[in-house]
Amino acid sequence: MTDSEEKEWELLSPDQVTVKTLYMRGIPRWEYERYLSAKATSVQGDTYAGAGWQVTLSEERQESLGVCSLVAVDVTLAVAKDQFDDFLRTFRKNFLRGGG
Question: Residues in domain Molybdopterin cofactor biosynthesis MoaD-related C-terminal (predicted)?
Answer without folding.
Answer: 21-100
